[in-house]
Amino acid sequence: MAPRSRVYIIQPPVNIPQVTPCLDDQPFPLGLLGVGAYLNQNGFDAKGLHIPNLLANKSHSLNDLINEIGEAQPLLVAIALNWVHFSKGAIKLARLIRQNSPDIKIVIGGQHATLFTRQLAKAAEGCVDGIVNGEAERTLLNLCRHLENEGQMPLQMPGLFLCSHNQSHARVIAPDVVQNIDSLPFYDYSFLQAKNGTLPVATLSTGRGSCPLKCAFCLEHVMGNLQGRNKLHFHSPEWIVAHMKHIMDQGIKQITIQDNLFIGGDKMVAQIADEMERQNIYLDHINIFAHPNSFSETGFQAINRMAKLASIDFGVETGSRRVLELVNRPSDLDAVLENIRDAVKAGIVPYTWWLSGLPDAPQAEQDTCTFMKETMVLGAIPRSVNPLVLLPRTPMHERSQDYGIHPRFKRFEDYSLFSQVSLQDAQHFGDTLTHNTSERSRNDILEETKRLKQFILEHFAIIEKFWQSRHPLLLDELQQIKDHIQGSFRLNEE
Fold it and tell me: Where does the record place the B12-binding domain (predicted)?
C-alpha cells in the first residue's frame, strides 16, 4: 500500500517575531481539529501544528518547525486565519515556508480569511496559492485529491480563491459543504496537542450554519452564510453525546459549548441530557454560552443533569434598553433577571459578559452599571467588559451611519494591527478600538471600559458573599476573575 500523502494543518503565531498577544493565542480551533479529522478519515495523513502552543512551551523553535515541514515535503500546507490577531503571523509563516520550500502548495483559510478574501490574497501575494472560503472540509479534500492526481493547483474549485488569478476579476465560488453533518468524524485534541498532559477543558461543536438572531454588531448570522449555509443545522443529540464520550476517552472531563446550541432552547438541551443518561455520560463540568432568555427553568434543570458542575455564560452586553433596541438585540431586561434567578434555582452558576463601544444612548453607561449590580445581587458573576470589535459585513459596520458609528477599521490591513499590538498597549492606548461613535472617541470608549471594570471591582463583594455559602468551591475562581480584572488596571499603570 502506498504511503498516505502528508498534509500540514497549522495554527500560526500571532506575528513573527512573536509579540505578547492582545487576544488569546492558545485555544485549539475547532475548524483545524475538524478538518484534520476529515482528511485523515478520507485517506490523507494530516498533521496538526499549534505553533503558539509549541513556542510557549519551548518544545520547538520556529526554525525547527519550518525545517520539519520542508523535510516532509507535504502535498499541502493549510494555515488557519480564524481571528484578527493572527493576520500578520499567518502571512509571515507562509512566506517563511515558501522561502524554505518553494514547491510546497500553501493555502490560508478560516473566518477572518473568508471575510477578507481578496485583500488577503493581495497581502499574501507570492507566498500563498489560494484562500479557502467558508467550511473547509470538502474544499481541502477536493484540493488534496486534485494535487495528488494533477500535481498543480486547479483552475477553479468551489470554496477556493486562487491567488494566481488577477484578484480584481477572479470569482469567489461558494464552498461545497458536507450536507449530513452527523457524518463528520469526531476530532481528537491530540491532533494539535503540543504540551505534556491533558487539556482541562474541551470545546464541543453542536452544529453548523447561521444564527437566526440578527444582532447588528454580531458576525454569527453573517458568517453562517459566508461559510456555505443559509440556516442553522444541529447535530443529533446522539452524535453530540457520542462525541462527548470520545472527548472523555481522551481524559478530558470538562466541556464548553460556545456555538449556537442555545437556539435549540429547552428541547435541545433536554434531548442531550436524556441521551447522556442513556449512554451513562456524566461530566465534571459543562459550560454553555447563551443569549439571555434562551432557556427556562426546565432547560436549566436539564443542563444541570449533565455534570457535577454546570455553568452558563450569558452575553448580556448592556443594561440600556435603548441600546438593545438600537442593535436589534432581543433581550427583555426584566426577563434576563428572571432567567438568572431560574438558573441559580436549578443549580447553574451564571456568568455575564458585557460590551463597551455600543451605539450612543442617554444614560447608557449608568443604566448598565445599575443593571449589572442587579444581576450580581442575583448571583450572576461578571467575567469581564470588552470593547466591541466591529467587523465588516455586520449591519453596524455596513450601515454605520444608521447606528451613529464611525468605523476606524475597514480593510484587512487595518485589522492586522491586532497582530502588532501587545495586550498592555491595547489596554492602555486603545489602538485596537475599531470605531468611534457620534458622541465618543476611541479614548472615551477605552475610559468607559475602565469605568465598567472598576464598577465590577467595587461591587465584587456582592458576588463573593452570594456564593460563599452556596458554593464555597467557587471562591478560588472568583478570586481569579477579580485578579484578571485588577490586572488590566496594573497593566495600564506600568
Answer: 13-154
Q: Which domains does the chain have, with CATH numbers?
A: 6-162 (3.40.50.2300), 196-493 (3.80.30.20)
Single out the residue of 213, 227, 438 nearest to residue 317, CA to CA.
Answer: 213
Residue 1: which pLDDT band, with cuts at 50, 70 and 90?
very low
Q: Cell numbers 500540514 correspond to what residue?
A: 8
pLDDT band at 168 (very low <50, low <70, confident <90, very high): low
Of 188-202, 270-284, 471-485, where does mean pLDDT reach its minimum? Answer: 188-202
Place 405 in a pLDDT band, splitting at 50, 70 and 90.
very high
Question: Using CA atoms, how far apart are residues 456 and 449, in angstroms rounded to an integer?
Answer: 11
Instruction: Classify burial at 225, counting beta carbons within 10 Å of its beta carbon; exposed 0-12, middle 13-18, buried 19 or more.
Output: middle
**What amino acid is encoded at 122 in this protein?**
K
The answer to whether the beta carbons of residues 214 and 161 sit under 8 Å apart is no
Angle between helices 442-458 and 364-377 (to 10 degrees): 30
Q: Do residues 343 and 290 touch, judged by C-beta distance below 8 A?
A: no
Distance CA 352, CA 373 (A): 11
Residue pLDDT, tens place only, 206-238 = 999 999 999 999 999 998 888 989 899 999 999
Closest CA relative to residue 187, chosen from 242, 226, 262: 242
